[in-house]
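User: Okay, second chain of the day. Same drill as before: sequence in, structure tokens out.
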Amino acid sequence: MSAKPQRIDWHARAAGLTIRGQAFIDGRYVDAASGATFDSINPATGKLLAKVAACDQADVDRAVANARAAFGQGSWSRLAPRRRKQVMLRFADLIRKHAEELALLESLDMGKPVSDALSVDMAASANCIQWFAEAIDKMYDEVAPTGAEALALVTREPVGVVAAIVPWNFPLLMASWKLGPALAAGNSIVLKPSEKSPLTAIRVAELAIEAGIPAGVLNVLPGLGGTAGRALALHMDVDCVAFTGSTRTGKLMLEYSGQSNMKRVWLECGGKSPNIVLADCPDVDRAATAAAYAIFFNQGEMCSAGSRLVVHESLRERVLEKIAAVGRELKPGDPLDPDTRLGAIVDRPQLETVLRYIDSGRREGARVRLGGAQVRKDSGGYFVEPTVFDEVRQTMTIAREEIFGPVLATISFRDVDEAIAIANDVSYGLAAAVWTRDITTAHRVARAIRAGTVYVNCYDADDITVPFGGFKQSGNGRDKSLHAFDKYTELKTTWVDLSS
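Assistant: Same drill. Structure tokens below.
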């Protein structure tokens, strides 16, 4: 009989954890040029974790200069694809080797349950780096079908220096979605993690060097968005910005591109995703359970969260009862307890934002069916219980704006056309779902909804082989899959005259 896996004492691990807070430039850790720092706060306790380098223009200039020099030297950009693959595979293996340390850093830094950080975030991050590593020497260039008097070659080249600006909700995973294809294509990168959760990015930079990625190819600059992020987006020697975050900040990225060198800007922004349960839903309990996790997983801090439940009026009560039952089981708890399924909101400002939206729902006439309050106040942390609103109208604030918390808005409908109209009646278009037993209806609804991903009889299904991104103000371009290479490469045509 096999031995039972030993339960990790995450608090003991945390007590012995070394946390780095410096920037990583040209292969080594350095303080910000100004010496300035900001506080990294544990959202589960409200206590200080570390002082982190607050990088600004001088640090951006230095990191970009090193990235440009490394790109020009060709130690990575011109390395044979097979060799780049070997290095990136070692990088993926090192992420797996240090997965427990990285998961602990991520849980302490942004409040998610450590069990999710380990089983979801770290596993998917390593898989992403590995997948793009394995794709490097599978990408072929083209010969255009010209006449016999010419040879036209279409080749992909790395874009150059990439500024990757990533969010706080899945810190290492969102970074990996950008590092994987950008590194595989041969680019140099300056990674700017969110000031709310910079610790795994800082640590993983050292693992990249250990794997064999040359100094200067991957630099990490912690700092505030308004200083370090803005300086990167305006920098004249950055060729591409790959950004994941709010729609408001995404629009600034486009402005900064126009104000500087017209650098390519790729955006994955907000969402207000509809989860449509039609009258012929094949399994109502399964749909309701999926709807609960679609909004409560990761404390609702997901751009693709199913934050709008669009449910046929005949099923509304049954679905809401099941969601409420699941929500009551998902009590916010200590993120370092392996049994915790719902952790802390990332920081106090985001906690206050979520609570303001809950208050606005009440003021505008929506009915609270579950939750609606801050909990675990004695912990010093930032916790909100799962919250479900019913009787929501499409004109209400909670039905139109991204909350980024465990708050579900329920809207009922009478027929399929009304459901489609409700689904499309927002400025976002990141994800959606439809539950139906009719394959024709499923295809009809999927085609009609303006979203980058439409799930049928599931929610948040995922694989690195499929693209992820949005329509409308949810952004442009795609992360994951081979389509991600389009963001980090330039197409070059070489025309050879064979007529003479």
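The first helix runs from residue 10 to 15.

User: Thanks, on to the next one.
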